[in-house]
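Working notes for the structural subgroup meeting. M.R. asked for a predicted model of this chain before we commit to crystallization trials. I am recording the input and output together here so anyone reviewing the notebook later can reproduce the run.

Input as submitted:
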Amino acid sequence: MIARTYADLIRPDKKAAAWLFDLLMVVGASLFISLSNLLRLPFPGSPVPITGQTLAVVMLGALLGSKRAPAAVLLYLFYGVAGLPVYSGGALAGPTGGYLLGFVFAAFVVGLLCEQGLDRRYHTAVAAMLVGNIILYIPGLIWLSFFVGGDQAFILGFFPYIPGDLVKLALAAALLPTGWKLIRRWRRQS
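Returned structure, recorded in token form:
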């Protein structure tokens, strides 16, 4: 089998072991998303805080692919629905609920793009993650507009976050191709 994601590289071949591996990857990734919420800064005047979640979601999309990563996001969303304090902006029905739902779509799309090899080079990794970020903003801004109005949604939920998102994308996009280069070098030496 050709490795399409990092997780595919280490996934066991035996069916029972592969199933357990996928389960552990999904649970571990959902916990990682929860922990990434601890990197949280309130943004003055906005109900949308700056968090590490967007970085976690796009990275997990690339690392786990289009099936495991959205499953991890759905499990993360379940934690919050079950009452665990894992959402930074309150409940799923709160102002940040659209972004949370957008995480599922972003993880899927980034995973799908990276399964096609877009995480192997810096520029294509940036493009894949940029698409993922745009996708998560669509439901986020639509949902936020019900709380702050359509004209304020972009001012309070998009424009202030562009610089931070670009930094997160640059970091993630630098790590992914570097990892693949190290893997190729290690395989040549083995």
